[in-house]
Amino acid sequence: MHTIELAAALLTIDMQQGIQRLPTPRNNPQAERHIAQLQQHWRARGWPLVHIRHISVDADSVFAPGQSGAAFQPELAPQASEAVFEKNVTDAFCHSALERWLHVRGIAKVVIVGVASENSVEATARTASNLGFATVVVTDACYTFGKTDFAGVLRSADDVHNMAMANLRDEYAQLHCTAELLSGD
Predict the structure, then answer these.
(1) Boundaries of each Isochorismatase-like domain copy (predicted)?
(2) What is the DSSP letter of 8?
């Protein structure tokens, strides 16, 4: 059983409408449901929620500003009282005020969910840890897509996700599933 302290912020990364348009097979088809459960859990306890939105500098991106892909998925959208930070690189801490926002509120722990496991989730988790935040990644509340590796071998979304989690495990983050966090109070 894992207990989340009052000072833990839930960081929801890049859960925007554009990510739903990507045709590549993905893993964790229940990730959005788990993210919604975690958001509800945090809101019921008055714990801090932070939403990260990717705003691309590439006009052809599904995350380009001013088009529907940049908008949050309605079921995972922030409430008016919740913090929103925008990024245009993979790392939610880079070129944003996220670190300062957390420090000002005395938040020493972050719980990360969202997309993509080996991209923005992994980059943000590594930086959070390197900045001294206790870091948790919820393995079944993030997902990714199949990808061709450096050697030209197509890797499944599960393979890519599992390697990202292996990269983070213990050195950068604790890994937990949604059920563990929801039962940990």
Answers:
(1) 8-175
(2) E
Domain ranges of the chain: 8-182
At 1, is the pLDDT very low, low, confident or very high (cuts 50, 70, 90)?
very low
- H-type helices in the chain, by residue range? 31-45, 98-104, 122-130, 157-168, 178-182
- Per-residue pLDDT at 13 exceeds 60: yes
Nearest-angstrom CA–CA distance, 50 and 110: 10
pTM: 0.94
- Residue 164 token pair: 């990202």
At the second CATH level, the architecture of 8-182 is 3-Layer(aba) Sandwich (3.40)
Q: How many CA atoms lie within 13 A of 143 on its CB side?
A: 21
**What's the CA gap between 46 and 101, in Å, rounded?**
17
